[in-house]
Amino acid sequence: MKARSWILCLLFLPLLRAADVQPMVQRGEVAYREGRWVEARDTLIRAAGLTDTEEQKQQILKRVGQINIELLMSPYEQPGCIWLEVQPGDTLGKIAKRAGTTIELLKAMNRMSSNNIRLGRRIKVLVEPFDLVIDKSENIATLHLGGQFFKQYDVSTGATANTPEGSFKITDRIVHPEWWHPVTKERIPYGAPGHKIGTHWLGWDVKGFGIHGTDEPEKIGQAVSLGCVRMRNEEVEELYILLPSGTPVKVKE
Known about the structure:
By secondary structure, the protein is an alpha+beta fold. It has helices at residues 2-33, 37-50, 54-72, 92-99, 103-109, 233-242; strands spanning 81-85, 122-126, 130-135, 140-145, 148-154, 157-158, 166-175, 179-180, 187-188, 200-204, 210-212, 223-225, 229-230, 248-252. The strands form four sheets. An eight-stranded mixed sheet has the order 5-4-3-14-7-10-11-13. A two-stranded antiparallel sheet has the order 1-2. A hairpin with a 4-residue loop joins strand 3 (130-135) and strand 4 (140-145). Helix 1 packs antiparallel against helix 2 and helix 2 runs antiparallel to helix 3.
């Protein structure tokens, strides 16, 4: 009888797991509405790991990403962040460099409109590192914080599978980048007709490759680029805020 019970449990486990997911999602949303954002995020991550439906998993992970961004850009306590008191001689640039983050993120997290900081002010600082994994087969970029899932983005990669695979680092962070046409070698300033790489550029330590925006957002999710990784302009702008130079980027098939 015991063996038979174990067999029945194994047969019905997937159904039980799937049935448990929706109440867990609802508990996560209740926690979010009540201001318990870390609990909400963690509950939804567990739900994503239990669901057997890929569509539902992606929906849950999308919600996790939204909460993670909202939590990070808020004055609330969260794992991976500390509060620092501004000391004599401190600047946002110095604090960002020590913490391995960006000035833009420090300003967003602390709702600052300028780079000026007052002596003695307490500011929220991210101290855990980001890394980015780009899956060419799925055209998805997964962002991790401290090794844990943070957010996913749809991307486009090389039309001829020429987006290089391997481990890289972000070396260049440029707002409103110029673009050199790959065939004519013409320099095209940002905003000029024919400019193709959107609002931001995150270049890698391999010449000519990186992550950028696009003037064709409808093609995101397809293998259509000349080799770089394309994103929607508002999403590459978000990555620009989050990711400092030196951020690891892994590209896999």
